[in-house]
Amino acid sequence: MPLGTLDSSPPPFFRQGPSALSKLVFFGLLSVSLMVADSRFHLMQPLRAGLATVLYPLQWAVLRPFVWLGDGTRYFQTLQASQADAASAQYQLGLQSQRAQQVEQLTLENARLRELLGLSARLNVPALASQVLYDAADPFSQKMIIDKGSLSAVQVGSPVLDEWGVLGQVTQVYPLTSEVTLLTDRHFVIPTLNTRSGVRALAFGNDTALELRFLGAHVDMKEGDLLTTSGIDGVYPSGLQVARISLVNRQTDASFARIQATPVAKIRGALHVLVLKQGPTIDTSAADDNASTPRGTQP
């Protein structure tokens, strides 16, 4: 075939159309024109709104994991912070409650100490302030332990008072502590005087109260009468409050009246006491043989 008969034009697949420079200039001008028109007349606003509406569900679905992760992180952080704040508040509340209780206890102790000091000032005998440590472990006796002993010049037989009246008597003395037998102990006896009628009587402990024995059926005793120390035993100064008559039972077929009295002192609630230093000379060897009996108060 002669060469002149061949078509020299390129096939459609290789046709390039306008040059690249022409396309750049054209589309550049078109872009600038659209930007100017949109800036001036907002021509693309409806298109952007439509695209935003169409793409919103996709955006929402893509952002959900990140939102949930952030919410979960904030939840646990807030929970930990709340728990820490609650624990701190509970701790502060406990401290305030403890301080309030201590203030109430200190106020009560202050009032009792003032009354003790006032009682000591009214007494004409030397007195030593002491603190109650604990009740004695023996369940069959009425005793307690105080924090003053022989190093503080406490002696066996010394009377013990609280701010209301006679509490008991020292029956055992150790270097740093002492044992006090309370009024209600079965081995305890104290001479008393009825301030209304002037009747003297011996008061015996019976575990819960005091019992006045060997008094005639017609003795002048009434419920509510105040019993004080008579002073005839030489151990207790006269005029100290001991108990109040709580029961008077006169039986016609009995020679003696049945009389009970309630101690005015706080037998099981005393915190601070006064130990009187004045008292008769006591045989310590006899006290060792029978320590459970207050030797200075035997009738």
Describe the structure.
- The protein is of the alpha+beta class.
- It has a domain at 127-297: Rod shape-determining protein MreC, domain 1 (Thrombin, subunit H), CATH 2.40.10.
- Helices cover 35% and strands 23% of the residues.
- It has three helices and twelve strands; from the N terminus they run ααββββββββββββα.
- The strands form two sheets. The chain has a six-stranded antiparallel barrel with strand order 1-2-5-4-3-12. A six-stranded antiparallel beta barrel has the order 6-7-8-11-10-9.
- A hairpin with a 7-residue loop joins strand 1 (127-135) and strand 2.
- The radius of gyration is 50 Å and the shape is rod-shaped.
- Mean pLDDT is 80; it is low at 279-293 and 295-299.
Question: How is the topology of this model organized?
Answer:
Elements: H1 20-41, H2 45-122, E1 127-135, E2 143-146, E3 159-161, E4 166-173, E5 178-182, E6 189-194, E7 200-205, E8 210-212, E9 226-229, E10 241-249, E11 258-263, E12 272-276, H3 284-289
Antiparallel strand pairs: 1-2, 1-12, 2-5, 3-4, 3-12, 4-5, 6-7, 6-9, 7-8, 8-11, 9-10, 10-11
Give a concise summary.
This protein is an alpha+beta fold and 299 residues long.
Please, how many helices? 3
> In what order do the strands lie side by side in the largest sheet?
1-2-5-4-3-12
Shape: rod-shaped
- Stated plainly, the CATH topology of the domain at 127-297 is called Thrombin, subunit H
* CATH architectural designation of the domain at 127-297: Beta Barrel
CATH superfamily caption of the domain at 127-297? Rod shape-determining protein MreC, domain 1
Structural class: alpha+beta
Distance between the termini: 165 Å
Write down the secondary-structure element order: HHEEEEEEEEEEEEH
State mean pLDDT (0 to 100 scale).
80
Low-confidence stretches: 279-293, 295-299
The number of E-state strands comes to 12
Helix content: 25-40%
**Biggest sheet descriptor:** 6 strands, antiparallel, barrel
- Indicate the proportion of strand residues: 15-25%
Mind telling me the CATH class of the domain at 127-297? Mainly Beta
* Radius of gyration over all CA atoms, rounded: 50 Å
